[in-house]
User: Fold KCMB1 protein from Calyptomena viridis.
Amino acid sequence: MLGKKLVTAQKRGETRALCLGLGMVACSMMMYFFIGITIVPFYTNSVWTTETVCKVLKVNIKDKVLCPNSEGSDDEDIFPYPCLQVWVNLTALGQEVMLYQTEDTLERNPKCSYVPDKSENSKEVKARIETIASNFKKYHTFLCYYDPGGMQTNVILSRLYPPKGLLFAFLWPTLMFTGGCLIIVLVKISQYVSVLSAWQ
Assistant:
């Protein structure tokens, strides 16, 4: 009687462990799919892939503009803010080009180097933009990214999804997938050992 209870408990534990492993594998596959349709296209479509040194030429803060400056935008997304323009000398090509914070900044408003978040109030936005402008005037040389193919004549300060960020995004689903497979393998080994012991 006690042996039957132990066998039943063992089978329940193996079933739960197997379900856990299969669930982890399924969740990791869903995460792979989500990353593949969201982050990977942004990474592959970015043409600013080569890092170089940029030198600041001039920094201007113009009067308030509306954001974004793109067609099809909702009225809720339009808000005024001071327009920061940073012009740099691209040392790799020796050209005077405009600097943008990220790829998204260029899409949201190609007239400004920095686009603030609409959730911030006007005083915070003004103080932040003045701080950014003073930092650019203080640190004249820094690393930036440009398009080696020449399709984009401007440069960006940082990429939304650099290679390290893409690898980090794939790290967690990979660990979950590996853990799920390991649990399944251990359960199958346990079942095989149990059958072998019963046969002997």
